[in-house]
Amino acid sequence: MSVATFYVDICGCGWISLHFPARNVLFLPRHCNPSSPRGSLVPKGITLQHKVPAGLDRKEAEVYRHLDPERLPKHIAIIMDGNGRWAKRRHMPRVAGHRAGVAAVRSTVETAARVGIQAITLYAFSEENWKKRPKSEVDFLMGLLSRYLKAEVPTLNENNIRLEYIGRQQQLPDDVQERMEWARQSTAQNTGTVLTLALNYSARSELVDAFRSMLDAATKNGGAEHLQIDEDKISEHLYTRHLPDPDLVVRTSGEMRLSNFLLWQLAYAEIYVTPTLWPDFRGVHLLDAIAEYQKRERRYGGLNHGDSHAHAEVAKAQK
Q1: CA 28 – CA 33 distance, rounded (Å)
Q2: Side by side, which strands form the sheet with 248-251?
Q3: Nearest-10 crossing angle of helices 174-187, 135-158
């Protein structure tokens, strides 16, 4: 009796050999296993799981095993909400919630990088925060941002993460702008996940700035009569022109609104809302959001597969 031998990585902990009678082996065509030039042999009744990326903890690895690595969102946007409520529930000042939120940023961004998310954008500080938060809290947030950037650059480099920003940065304090530029340049050589911090950001202001930029470009090109406006042209003048539009937007703390965040770019994004407050959010919660994302069928205004088939049958019957 002929025997087939397989070498299988068990949960990322090491390789073992498995032996099966050849009659219990299926041959999968090439398209079933893109990593193999000639297909792969898989025993009947055995499901081969994708290799778990290094660095994931036990809970993250368990969720990841149920994901399809070929269908990960390219760009995830996150509205980080709930710092104040987290602190209030613990009878602590609001700034304690902001400080605790740093650990959530670190865990979430590192997990995104480890599983291969191309881009992650965090809504860190809105234009409205200037107007509606006490000056003492705003000053604390600016100091926290500077300390975060100084402390996290080595970790970003270790994880091959490149740092970028969107928003009206020129209105931030000079010392904060200097630290931001230092951190950006310090990670500019990295080629992995792009981490974008939305600072002093407003989606409506972004659109205003985009139209002003388009008008300025037309004026320099011979006058306003040369102004061309279409969706692609607008996208080329947004802060996020270097990024793909988000596939998934995550909001913590259970609130059901976008809060003036990436209004143009989120037109077709899947929305995932979790009651988890931001300081309690971790990489495993990000993977939970991705798992929910992969259950959905993205139609972009079209029909799903079943409806499309039914429509075709109706059309055929009417001929």
Answers
A1: 7
A2: 162-166, 194-201, 119-126, 75-79, 248-251, 270-273
A3: 10
Q: Which residue has the tokens 């970028």?
A: 164
Domain boundaries of the chain, sorted by first residue: 3-43, 58-201+244-295
Tell me: the pLDDT tens digits for 41-74? 444 444 445 789 999 999 999 999 999 999 999 9
Tokens 């100091």 found at: 143
Nearest of 249, 260, 280 to residue 132 by alpha carbon: 260
Mind telling me the catalytic residues?
Answer: 81, 129
**Interval 163-195: pLDDT, tens:** 999 999 999 999 999 999 999 999 999 999 999
CA distances (Å), origin 206, targets 64, 71, 155, 249, 277: 35, 30, 30, 18, 27
As a CATH number, domain 58-201+244-295 is: 3.40.1180.10
251-273: b (≥16 Cβ within 10 Å) or e: bbbeeeebebbbebbbeebbebb
Sign of the alpha-carbon dihedral angle for 167, 170, 171, 176: positive
Contact 247, 74 (CB under 8 A): yes
Contacts (Cβ under 8 Å, ≥6 apart) of 26: 41, 42, 43, 44
